[in-house]
Amino acid sequence: MEMDSRRSLCCILLLVLFGISIQYQCSASKIDADQTALLLVNASEASARKMPDTLFGIFFEEINHAGAGGLWAELVCNRGFESGASFTPPRIEPWSIIGNNSSVIVSTDLSSCFDRNKVALKVEVLCDNGGANICPDGGVGVYNPGFWGMNIEHGKSYKLVFYVRSDETLNLSVALTSLNGLNKLATKTVVANNVSNWTRVFVLLEAEGTDSNSRLELRSTTKGVIWFDQVSLMPLDTYNGNGFRKDLFGMLKALKPAFIRFPGGCFVEGERLKNAFWWNKTIGPWENRPGHYGDVWGYWTDDGLGHFEFLQLAEDLGALPIWVFNSGISHKEQVDTSDILPYVQDILDGLEFARGAPNSKWGSFRAEMGHLEPFDLRYVAIGNEDCSYSKYRGNYLEFYSAIKEAYPDIKIISNCDGSSKALDHPADLYDFHIYASASDMWFNASRFDDALRSGPKAFISEYAVHGKGAGKGSLLAALAEAAFLIGAEKNSDVIEMTSYAPLFVNDKDWKWTADAIVFTSSQAYGTPSYWMQHFFIESNGATYLTSTLQANPSNALIASAITWQNETDNNNYLRIKVVNFGSSRVTLSISISGLSLQSSGATKTILTSSNVMDENSFTDPKKISPVKTRLGEISENMDVTLLPYSFTSFDLLRKSISIRTVTTASDLESSF
Which interval of the chain is the signal sequence (predicted)? Predict the structure, then answer.
């Protein structure tokens, strides 16, 4: 992630908030002293334009423990004991020892049965259930607190899988307990006589209590040496059994995203190439995945959420997958184009894994993982924020040519900005990122007004207010982002996709602010930026209408108008969205030409709060969230009130009428 080069001086925010005008065109304007404005909506056939079906989606990056300890429901942190293997002596955090040096010694060695995960945990139990050195009550061993506490819920079942070996008879107590170990939520005893070779153990634990700050314990009261490896604890009630935490998945599903971009972001690149995300190390049985250290964001991931799971996530969401892969470039290294062909072949293999027939080499691998049919992968991005690197264009062309030859239908996304200057290489789309202060984001609502109208379309894959005005997710940030998206609707003839970033943050690991969804092991809430995106769900594939604000030529209002069909009642609606970025209440006169409205059945939805820097929280998770009310009698000419610092949507029920939209040659080329 990086700041957009067009970022304006931060003082612009002060100018806006104190009412000093900044010139802006078309649908944005500031209100003069009488607090009124006029919005003209033209619904004529000449005005109507279909927006892309893919205009609004989501972007998932492994940052802020979004996946490890978040969306991916694995409860054990460092399940393979690999994350601290490079240290001397090796570290096992967050695993901790139960007992003291007179009763137990814990270390690691390289005796695992898994070729790509050689580290195993060695537990030497020095005490016994009799004799001179009697074990303390409950025994000794190790425990794992998960990712800042495991959420264990009464009545739910948890699947514990681990690998073990010992030359002695195994007598092991496995338990879910409170963080201090005093309150047991679930417990079982594992007894086995012949585990001299590595043995897979499965235990189903049924919780008899609830604690969002729990831990997993492995204890013994029998003297001897026990080796452990690949310890996994998963709740049974993940989404469709596919491993996704239900509440977090549900929040994504509620956005109805047209696409999901994954797995990064800088996570794809790494500071060093060895720490980049390599798809073929993240597939197959979870026990065989080596995991890797994400050196950009500073934590280990076991890659349980891997290439297959990302594709499955897209399918479960009903969204198109967009795979971002490494272009042979990290933050600090570049592969010379003369050496890039093995990397190109690796990506062709990854595409075959996703799209190949079940009897193909890599397609059969996917089929063995339980997905016989190919995934619907239509987009790939070559690298992330790599355009400035000297080797990028050469590497890009090698990837582009090979992919187009093998999969001519796949749309390829370049990292280079093609909005103001034609690209010097072929591409179907170009990637555009913008992180800016609230005032700059507002100002950038017009960013694509003068963009090139021919050539590749834009994929705004990362946008968000960051820095001044962002807080940890403020109303001000959401309003500025809403204005930017209204600008994206207006320019949807050259913008094909947009997605907010970052998507998730674990409340214990804020690597980046702000984010759309904040969570702990047991709770989650959407920031105002998350709720703001709900206003644009129906814009995918909707019809954009020309709208014009008439007021003083400065910018505290921006508006758009679309027509869309409600899937629930099959009625057709005119939706007018307006952001009031100013501190004054505004009376907006709306005049609609070209269509007729029903006098009833209209609603108003508003996002606002008493303070522009208000945020949501775990104690008040919906302090700033959409509030929907019914409107009284409406007509094609009416007045509405806009509250200060607000985002308002008016859904007006149309009388039966058909609007023909203008379809251009470029629209046909980009259709599916």
Answer: 1-28
